[in-house]
Amino acid sequence: MKPCSVIIVGAVFMVFSHLASATQADDTTITITGHTAGVTPFISSLTLDVSNTTVLKSIQFAIDSKPGSVVRPLSGTYSNDYLVGRGFEHPPEISLPVYGLYAGYQNIVRLTYRFLDGSSKQAVTSITTATFDDPCGYQNPTILQARTHDTNLSYDYMMVKGSCSNFEPAIIDTDGALRWVGTANIAAGSAIFFDNAAYVGHGPLLTRIELDGAFTLLADYSSLGVINFHHNIDPGKVGVILDADTTTYYNSVNIEVDPHSGTVLKMWNLADIISAAMIAGGDDPSQFVYPTPTDWFHNNGTTYNRADDSLIVSSRENFLICLDYETSAIKWILGDPTKKWYQFPSLRKFALTLPPGSLPPIGQHAPSIAYDQNLLLFDNGQSSVFQVPRGDQRDYASPRKYEVNSAAKIATEVWNFESNQSIPCPYCGSVYEDAPLNYLIDYAFESPIGQNAFARLLGLNAAGETIFSYRYPTYSCGTIYRSIPLHLESTKFPTVGPQPLNLSTRGLVGTGDNVLIGGFVVSGTDPKTVVLRALGPSLSGFGLSDVLRDPVLSVYDSSGTLIATNDDWQGDPNHFIVESNGLVPANLSESAMARNLAPGAYTVIVRGKDTTPGIGLVEVYDISPLSNSKLGNISTRGSVGTLDNILITGFIIGDVDSATVIVRAIGPSLAAYGVSGVLSDPTLTIYDSTGSLIASNDNWQDNVNSVDIGKNGLAPPDPSESALVLHLPAGAYTAIVRGANDTTGNALVEVYGLN
Q1: pLDDT at residue number 556
Q2: Is the backbone peptide bond immediately before 494 cis, with ω within 30 degrees of 0?
Q3: Are 246 and 227 in contact (CB under 8 A)?
Q4: Where are the alpha helices (DSSP H) in 29-168?
Q5: 3-state secondary structure of 25
Q6: From edge to edge, which strands make up the β-sheet containing 430-433?
Q7: Rounded distance between C-alpha atoms, residue 752 and residue 724, angstroms
Q8: pLDDT tens sequence across 178-230
Q9: How much is the average pLDDT of 336-360?
């Protein structure tokens, strides 16, 4: 992606500028004076003596992986404000938390100090740790397949949840090495990694555990009748959703809470919801719904779908049920039609049908929304335990993915990993997708007949290749009930959540209507600081010919008033902000500006200083992602030709978690706004940071999620225009707009964040 290459160029520039004059890195002395062991061997604290802490922007640590490993080094970056706010900074001393160390090992830790003027410097130290007494056996798996040297697996770390110790949850890497354990003396009932911390539900309590080992009791929900939290904690619409047992119902209540305060945001009582639907449909709910202690539902996980504002709840006993988030109305049910629920007309009317060749999920766990908006789950194949008829029984487990067409009420199985139907896992387990088609599979209770039970972790890359496979002894589901892929190779504090952060679009810049036009919206309550750039000459270094020789950048507000313009970046009065964020253009004739913009809509136009056309790049960088405002509705209009002269847009999704976006390519409908020479039939293709194709669309109504596009008010006006709904993990993506059959003309590419 272009943002990466640009930052590299900026770094080279900084080297030359440092030779010319002293920098804050030169003027600041930082000495590592020692380290203190943490509450576990996986955590330590480095003591730094800093001559001037006020010029520090951030400090990053990175722990070398063991020799021969392809696991990316575990790394964390603390902003100076974060260190002050957490009480780690008492000038001239800073106590720097380092987590993720190998136990019983001499760890090499590399530090990078970054300063407000954009300069930086490095240091290296070592931390020798004690061994760890691991009661769960996480450190010594049976290696069925060692981690291969393939570097295409998108994740390197995993959080596992068990109840085999008071050090839950735990984090291991894909080499099978234990790298972190919980510090709150809890045998986890339920857990999630959220906001760069572990959340654990235990009894009626919710506790947050920081990676540095500190922990906080967020809330006690016993006043709501909660007895115990079980199974999963899952991301919700606003906070996190817990599975709760209450004094009245067992395994059939969900609660969404604020992850910072613990405040209850919303509750779903599945007994009440299903009873109301059955009564409305003329059925007697007492034949299906039961009070505690009967396990009539066995709720074991949820997933929120932002595209249609729905909550999908997994009932091991019965089905998956999709609810309208706001009203709790039932939208659809997916499950085995030979089970008891299907005998009730009031529930059967919500059933999705499956075409030949598609199997219904049975006794499933861990529902989630995949990158392509399909429904992913772990199908255990286990029939009902309480409800009769119990339904079908399979002697193997398999991850499955379904394309759900809610308008047609059809669910089509589009992927599975049946592993020759050879792995039984009747209870527990999970599958989660990280980057597109990269999976982590957890067989939590692999129980071959006549053998001891095991838990198995298996990683698949996008090519479907097994990258690692580890087996652990277990009792019931107590060792590894559920496993989640993590990204600890570049963790930031404070957390930058799921949101579109940066936009870059490359296109042909001509004259008249054929200029490059970018649009974006600052939503929220606070101003947002952005860096805007227009590049041309430096693009030739990437193999492009006919680049724009001298780009000029102009910014307009929603009234059409010019608020800023720049020809050469050094002429901008805020060029020091551009420099300090490593965003210096490589060529002096290129444009850049930093501005603090109030909430509202803005337009960026790139023209050539002369009339010679050429390929240019316009970019918008959010350099204040933690403010109470966000970049949204990012769009660029440009000329679409053939070969290199197509419209290429890059965008970045946050640092953690996934964001739901709608990407559109507009052509014919631009004529209504006075644009001439429009692209008559735009096509849209999305690639991830590895260059892999992950989605494409020609005519938006052909997309199975076209209903969701319309529900969000983003249906393109013309049926020949393109649109996609995607649930994308953090990372960099490229959208390419071409003309069908090599047609040419002006087009608009847009990225809308639904978060």
Answers
A1: 93
A2: yes
A3: yes
A4: 80-85
A5: helix
A6: 142-145, 466-473, 454-460, 439-446, 430-433
A7: 10
A8: 999 999 999 877 999 999 999 999 999 999 999 999 999 999 999 999 999 99
A9: 98
- Report yes or no: 47 and 32 within 8 Å, Cβ to Cβ: yes
Confidence check: pLDDT of 507 > 50: yes
Q: E strands along 420-527, which residues?
A: 430-433, 439-446, 454-460, 466-473, 482-486, 491-493, 500-509, 516-524
pLDDT at 463: 93
Model pTM? 0.88
Amino acid letter, 361? P
Q: Could you tell me the pLDDT band of residue 541, with boundaries at 50, 70 and 90?
A: confident
Lowest mean pLDDT segment, chosen from 287-291, 342-346, 521-525, 583-587: 521-525
Element (H, E) at 474: none
**Confidence label for 497 from pLDDT (cuts 50, 70 and 90):** low
C-alpha 205/C-alpha 264 separation (Å) is 13
pLDDT value of residue 613? 82
Ranges 294-303, 328-337, 413-422, 553-562: which has the least confidence: 553-562
Would you say 233 and 257 are in contact if contact means Cβ atoms under 8 Å apart?
A: no
Q: Could you tell me if 265 and 238 are in contact, meaning their C-beta atoms sit under 8 angstroms apart?
A: yes
Calculate ∠ Cα 293-294-300, nearest 5°: 100
Q: Quick one: which of 560, 745, 607 has its CA closest to 666?
A: 745
Burial level of 689, CB count in 10 A (0-12/13-18/19+)? middle
Contact 59, 83 (CB under 8 A): yes
The DSSP bridge pattern shows strands 600-608 and 365-369 to be unpaired
Could you tell me how far CA 545 lies from the centroid of its own chain?
Answer: 36
CA dist., res. 598 & res. 538, Å (int): 31
Report the alpha-carbon distance of residue 114 to residue 7 in Å, rounded.
15
What number of residues does the chain have?
755
Structure tokens at 269: 């009582």
- CB contact at 8 A, 218 and 206: yes
DSSP string, 220-258: E-GGGTEEEEEEEEEE-SSSEEEEEEESS-SS-EEEEE-
Closest Cα to residue 629, out of 497, 527, 531, 730?
527
Strand 89-90: give its sheet, edge to edge: 30-37, 43-50, 93-99, 89-90
Mean pLDDT in residue range 652-669? 84
Residues 254-267, mean pLDDT to the nearest whole number? 96
State the pLDDT confidence band at 15, using cuts at 50, 70 and 90.
very low
